[in-house]
Amino acid sequence: MKKMFHMIASVIAALTLCAATATAGNLVIKGSTTVLPISQLAVEAYMKAHPDVNISLSGGGSSNGIKAIIDGSTDIANASRFIKDKEVALAQEKGVYPVPFAVAYDSIIPVVHPSNTLTDITLVQLKDIYMGKITNFKEIGGPDLKIVVCSRDTSSGTYETWEGKVLDKERVTPRAQVMASNGAIVQAVSNNKYAIGYIGIGYLNDAVKPLTVDGVKGTKESTLNGTFPISRPLFMFTNGWPKGETLNFVNYMLNPQTGQKLVEKSGYVPLY
Predict the structure, then answer these.
(1) CATH superfamily, with its number, for domain 2-105+232-265
(2) Model confidence over 34-44: pLDDT tens digits?
(3) How far, in Å, CA of 225 to CA of 32, rounded?
(4) Where would I find the H helices in 72-203?
């Protein structure tokens, strides 16, 4: 962890040195809905501080963001997962060299309806639920309710992290209701006492009930120290080393006094 912090500090120093070459202009940011709340706060604050800059921000999922950086339709790709080898190969074929910048940390929290009496769940139980082997909450100490499984679509970085850390690359039950965003999961679970879903820590609110996993609560501390079992970094990708306004914005995101304060404000975990 200490080595990682040194690397982050080095990146920030390099960005600061290069920032003198930046010029005002327009920016396009696309990708992960998990990173969206962070980006929304940052874009609003950045444009307020730089009124001559116009920034277009949209979601669509991590895969769509990375696809956009490869095809040149975005300046920054938000992603809640790292770029895949096949995406790197495709990018290189097109002369694009994606550069990752970790901008925050996140934990993916399983959530149920607030009326559900269940409080803790194991990784094994989560896997069995999402594979369709456990179909009633009473099987794991909860109420006698048939489980409605809510999951993310395959273009989502959150889904891919869930697939890797919870499902061990197994397939989600075909009975699962597939949602396009964290916000859609929150809405579905908050309106259905039978539902279970999973969301980034920044989307937690009183409309849903978070579950501990193997007895560990998803918090800033458990995310940073690695004790919460479903955690990950969040990224912004650029095409090559950023320049101009792209460089300025990435520098803003990594700065402890600006973007990192907004990371914490949005409910996610800052780098430092």
Answers:
(1) Periplasmic binding protein-like II (3.40.190.10)
(2) 999 999 999 99
(3) 24
(4) 85-93, 123-130, 157-165, 182-190
